[in-house]
Model the fold of this input.
Amino acid sequence: MATDFNISSPDHDGAGELSEREYLFNAYLEGNLTEEEREKFDERLEDDSSFRREYEEFREVVDGVRNLPRQSAPPDMSRNVRRRIRIRSGGSFFADTSIQHSRNFHEVAAVAMMVVMASTYLVMGVPPDRGLENVERKGLELPPRSRESAPRRGHAPSDSPDQP
Amino acid sequence: MSRRPDRQLVRGLQQRDEDAFEEMVETYQHRVFNTIYHIVGDREEAKEVTQEVFIAVFKHIDSFRGDSKFSTWLFSIATNRAKNRIKYLSRRDHKQHQNIQATTESKFDDNPDSVGHSSAKPDEEAMGRELEEVIQAGIESLKEKYRTIVVLRDVENLSYKDISEALDVPEGTVKSRLYRARSKLKSYVQEHYES
Done:
């Protein structure tokens, strides 16, 4: 008989004995009998009404377990689990993909702008400061006295009331 | 919606990708919930334990080495959590299970197609429901080690190998416990369903 445990010895979990019939019913339902054993079982089912009745009762219970209505998880399961994860982790458990994507976009844009500016600098060089040139040129043309009396940054003009 | 393979899902979970997490929950929530419900025998408790299972998966995903299937690893966590809950409830002398009638009502509400009693005559329907109730009560009357195996095998249709890996017991033990669980269940049903 196709068995890997002794039906007449107590289960090592202390569950007691399993009758030969019960073993056969299980093995038959599980497809654990050899072809020859299966044929003998089928013959016995036909010939032995007591055996057949007992088997039918056994099969009804096993089928009953197999056909128990399946229970569906509540529809808000996923949302509730994620909420609990966020609470437990202080909001840092998940990699926040939306912020991550947004941050990545801005980082890429910033780097691209820097590259463009650097390229422009390398190709065109530093633009001349026209305003400074004009000031210096004008400064050279001013008469010496005017230059001395020209108000300096942070200093009051010469005609201010503070001056004697 | 096409679903990514478990390997990619695991990688996503390890990167703490929320989309991957959601996909994992959507994929497995009903099987996990159904398993836990039939082990624990209470819908509210099953809801709580199922949430804990998915939180544990996300928390410990880095310890999943891929030696077994992801689903087997998931069922391992689910059955452990369910067993712990049974112990916790028994310590608290938690004797009250959810009202069976209410449970049966909710079964029809949640998943009307799966029941398939719509064409049955009312008396057959009532008998079918009564048998279901007795069988569920019989499962709950089993010791935890038998209950877990009969649920994984006969309710979830897992292979001996997967059950063996999920429960970390030899396949021979899975088979012997299953056989004994069914025999005990049959005795229980005979005793309580004769009427």
Summary: The domain at 6-192 of chain B is CATH 1.10.1740.10 (Rna Polymerase Sigma Factor; Chain: A). The mean pLDDT of chain B is 85.
